[in-house]
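Hi L.,

You mentioned the student needs an example of a multi-chain input paired with its predicted structure. This one should do, with 885 residues in total across all chains.
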Amino acid sequence: MISRFLVTIRPLLRNRAVVIGMIILTTVVLAAILAPLITPYAPNKLSIVNKLLPPSAGHWFGTDEFGRDILSRAIYAGRISLLVSLGVVILSTILGVILGVAAGFFPRLDTPISRLLDAMMSFPDILLAIALVAALGPSLVTVIIALGITYAPRLARIVRGSTLVLREMPYIEAAVTLGLPTRQLLLRHVLLNLASPILVQATFVFASAMLAEASLSFLGVGVSTDMPTWGTMLASGREYMNNAPWLMLFPGLAIVFSVLSLQLLGDGLRDLVDPRLTKER
Amino acid sequence: MNDVQNQPILAVENLTTSFHTRDGWKPVIRDISFHIDAGETLAIVGESGSGKSVTALSTMRLLPRDKSRIEGRILLEGRDLLKISEAEMRAVRGGDIGMIFQEPMTSLNPVFTIGNQLAEALVLHRSMSWREAEAEALRLMERVRIPAAKDRLHEYPHKFSGGMRQRVMIAMALACRPKLLIADEPTTALDVTIQAEILLLIRELQKEENMAVLFITHDMGVVAEVADRTLVVFRGDMVESGETGRIFANPTQPYTKALLASIPRLGSMGDARGPRRFPEVDLTTGIASEGLEMVRTSPETKPVVSVSNLSIRFDLPHGRIHAVENVSFQLHPGETLALVGESGCGKSTTGRAIMRLQKPTKGNIFIGDKDIADISGQELRRLRRSAQMIFQDPFASLNPRIKIGDAIKEPMLSHRLMSRSEAKDRVATLLSQVGLSPDMAERFPHEFSGGQRQRISIARALALSPQVIVADEAVSALDVSVKAQVSNLLLDLQAEHDLAYLFISHDMSVVERISHRVAVMYFGEIVEIGPRAAIFDNPQHPYTQRLIAAVPIPDPSRRAIMQPADSPEIRSPVRPMDYVHPTRQYREVSPGHMVQLDDHVGAA
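Structure written out for the whole complex:
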């Protein structure tokens, strides 16, 4: 099983960009999971005497205006970011696939769904998300719902386009003439062949969601918990930017590297999920 | 001076082209040598993967430089093309050597007018001004016999039919009066009657310009029509070369013999009444067994498919396409009815209607005693078991993500015909019935060749034990030898299961071989229908006559198609919304042989 897995991902490992992306992402995910074990300080531990310390051996990333350790806070913030982004990807994928397949496979539904998607995409992403959060009230769940709805059209469009192409493929027509029920046709034949574009697009949505969550937090309409997020860290660090740039630098770098790793991964995944590439072993 | 005249236009010596693969350099053609004189046509013939196109691309140096390596000498009038710079080579391409490709639909740029694209080559290679170039473009279009050239100069490619586009491509290739014309499968994508015109055109132009022509094709019929000399290639090696007449009359190599034996030839049926199997050819000895006639054992019974007054129309914003008009026929168990005609004649639409992939506008389609024209949902799903379809493109008709065993199993399980373990056994049986090994069930479609995939599609179609199989150009995309094998398989399965086939094809020589009856479609209508022998020996409708006359005959001593009749441009099937289709009368020529009484083809 493991050797089969290794064989499958070998072409992916040949791509250096993908390997770098995977290493960064794995680090971020592991750090988030193991946060209580690896952080040197509690994320919310105040220590006014140590406020605004530059990076040093005791505080690798320095401390903030309340003397909290920035490294510890950045690691804990990654938990919220990953959680929100994962939720957004799952929600927007489910919504996007349902809408996209429906629009692509059933001509009668195409116009209403496509116009709805157009309408949604005509709003700037972050504005739509802010409006939805404002309507639903800020919390972890509402941020996920708001961003999930915001990014659903991105997936829906890709899925619709691919479904339109697939619907005309002889093997889908063959499945129709074999008398397969529509449910099986969609789940087995259409969805299976959509896996690759969905996966690739989902990776990019993951990256966008991470960025959007940070933006919402920065603007003060994000996840309201007492836990830090990269966005809130940026927002509060802004006032000290001239004197203590590390307050913004490290959460900023965390965002950049996480998003970059996902983008690199997305490019490589596109090729992996295609079984034709495993032909020559 | 004399020396120069004796020099061949193109001499290729010991050409070896290798591609870079993961395992290092791998030669795809080995040690190919040939030459072409002025005014001469050399055909390179071979099946897919034989390296014939690579030979042409090597000559033009059109292969990607980092992935390919060309060795040997390619002498164009004594100048070695492998030694000159890329800039010099650009002047050779389109200047000294013109090239036409297989796919006329995609080789013209859709956003420029025809005149513009022609003129561009002239400005570039013959340093004309745009005004001069435009005048010359018009002259070229007249030379390739494009009607109303002056008006069409300013039209865009989408307004041109496939045959007309190929004429434009030829005009482009000729723009700089090349000494050598390379034609890579130039007529493969065209209908037979159009093919005949294009071949004639190339030959006439060759005579006028005293051009050398390198003709690449898989079609031995075309070779026999056009080539002075022929070079047979097989898996990258030169097998045999010589005068075309000699090669056809007296092939020395087993592969050439095999290739020649497996070509479907029009008029090779003798006095057989039923279909005849293709001869089985041993590739190593080239010895062919005689193709046996299939004897039909089942008595005439009730038809399994009965189509009456079928019409299919598509509404457009500005009119209506009458794709199928008033088509009626019956199909009996164990019988093959071939539906023939050119692209756009409605034959595929008719087949799709029988599969209910297309809802008919009017008419009835009885399968057994159920009219499927108007049912849907569960009832339709159940009825789908009795009719199955085999598609043209073996690379697109299998889901790339599903193992072939699962693909064959799926319909049996979905219709709850048997348990999983029974289905598994049946998959093994079906695979061996179509000549594949049962342990291939665990493989994915991309691990198979085109011919094998078509066998898998056939196995899948048989999974539900249908009574009717609609074969839409099922063997058209296959190489000659594979085509013969798959056709034989279809014949054997028919005999074994008493299957009825609706065999949709444009390939008259295959149709002649495997059908009991033939229906000729033209512009959405059946213009002639009858027993195979009656249609081929005594065609009554002018269109049928033209269709049969246009088929290239693989016999250089009988060059037949070089005098085509005045060919009407294909008329548009788009009609005004209020168009009422005329009622047609049919005349019975002999028992079961009906021909449409109408002057619309004769007058065209």
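You could point out the following to them. The interface with chain B takes residues 169-181, 184, 188-189, 192-193, 195, 275-276, 279-280 of chain A (CB under 8 Å). The mean pLDDT of chain A is 85.

Best wishes,
N.
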